[in-house]
Protein: hydroxyacylglutathione hydrolase
Organism: Piptocephalis cylindrospora
Amino acid sequence: MRVYPVHCLQDNYAYVLLDEKTNEAAVVDPVNPDNVMEVVNKMGCRLTSIITTHHHMDHSGGNAEMVKKRSGLLVHGADARIPEINYVVKDDEEFKVGSLTVRALHTPCHTKGSVCYYAYDSADPSAPGALFSGDTLFLGGCGRFFEGTAEQMLEAMDKLSPLPDHTEVWCGHEYTRANLAFALSVDPDNAVLRSTYDRVSQLACTVPGTIGVEKAVNPFMRTREPALVKVTGGDSPQAVMATLRGWKDKFRPN
């Protein structure tokens, strides 16, 4: 399995997911079809599907043009607002991209129909899987609660946390430096967080991260940690989540 990030718009990522065994591929959130198809054509792979994390146009806005470019594509998603959707995924449902298995994990909050997708090679359990997390989980952060609640985002983080620590996280935007700057403002004594911030500050492209690192540095995955309970004054993980998101919405890095 290989994943190719494709820069789109100002700070979006689309992805090409390739099964090297069969040369079959899927594209994730191909908002800029020309950029995505340039990668697909260079690879010479057989494109069979679109995987859509949510309906926002900076993620799903390229679907209609992609379907025109390649007829017969399956368009996966879980929201009727997704253009060209023709395969509605259920929570925990699995489907195939070549020999790869992709599991749909419903994570409503950023939108009611947000889905994260976990791709893995069932024939090689030791190989890291890939999580396409859209605008639910960012490196160092999470998405805004546009159509959901702090409780739902907590449920989403709790659903993603059990994935293997070496799972690669391929998120929807390049927000990592700003996210980690906020994380340091609320968790300043976290040595792993500090070293991660120093490392990614030197990178133009910060993806992928890993679930293991996110559990160590991402405040929205650490709402039960004493340091974050103390700084927020929250009396529950949901309250910590709500406070952190409210602060992040107003945060402006130096």
